[in-house]
Predict the structure.
Amino acid sequence: MTKLEQYYNKFHEEHRLETRHGIVEFSTTLKYILKCAEELAYAEKSVLQANGEVPHKLKIADIGAGTGRYSVELCHRGFDVTAVELVAHNLEILRDKHENIKTWKGDARDLHFLDDETFDITLLFGPLYHLHGEENKLKALSEAKRITKKGGNILVAYVMDDYSVITYCFKEHNLEEVLKKGGLTKDFHTICTEDDLYDYVRISDIDVLNKKADLERIKIISADGHADYMRRELNEMSDAEFDAFLKYHHANCERPELLGAGSHTVDILRKS
């Protein structure tokens, strides 16, 4: 059993997105998935109607689907969803929900069981957290690009470097330990190894990946903004205060000055 499988066998992934800081991330990300879907559906409808054809259900691939939080929600909203998950424990939980979702056990770097240019939208909401090094990340991006239709969208989630440094090194007082093992560059970029569960990036790292993968950015958002730093404060808010915080975050999640310090970003790309 791999370290990743051991982690997710114990980690309650289903619960994470139901916490208040998780709700910020989920609601924000879902908003942008639906926005992409709306724009793609409108464009396709215009073309098909001009040709006298009937629009089809948009097809969404959820690569690294976990226990299916996004897959199930999107299925309920009427999309044709295919979910791929590496960790057998997570996949079992997803399949036990008995939803109308096609499921595969597989690695984001090798999606040979999915055909070229099949999906309108492809989600990569977990694999690039854990894939180390540029080569592995590019393999996942390349496979996502291959299975996505021309003009379709690829949404890619990353865990951010500054969040790791601020929380683990400074807030949790582990700076000395990290420095001893050579875990930081001179400008405080984390140096992750295959022994680390996560591989943290900066916006500049993401830009390099997009250029090498030949993917066009539509926009990039901070999926959770300040929420991960404010877990206790979010839990102490009244429902009205929390609703106001969600509105604040949704209104500001595209601001460039807020992107790098949150724990997650979502890069919204187009396959040309």
The first strand starts at residue 59 and ends at 63.
